[in-house]
Amino acid sequence: MMEVFVLVVVKPGHEEEVYNALSGHERIKEIYRVYGEYDLILRVEVENVEALDRFHDEVLRKLKNIEMTETLIASSYRG
């Protein structure tokens, strides 16, 4: 299982619409509205990179009011 964080920029005025569209999706474990450069942060769990590709293609890219995303794959590095 992979854990990723997706930083999302939404077209102005559509933040609640996108938040509601993503809330409750089975892959999204947490979703936060945030201040700053990004509008939303998603914590997503997927099985592998192929499942991450599908999540991006089938979920995020279908929402026309998402302007940009940045995906961060969590490391298992414990230091």
UniProtKB/TrEMBL annotation:
Annotated Transcription regulator AsnC/Lrp ligand binding domain ranges read 6-74
The record's listing under InterPro entries reads: Dimeric_a/b-barrel, Tscrpt_reg_AsnC/Lrp_C
Q: Which domain of life is it from?
A: Archaea
The protein here is known as AsnC family transcriptional regulator
Q: Which organism is it from?
A: Thermococcus pacificus
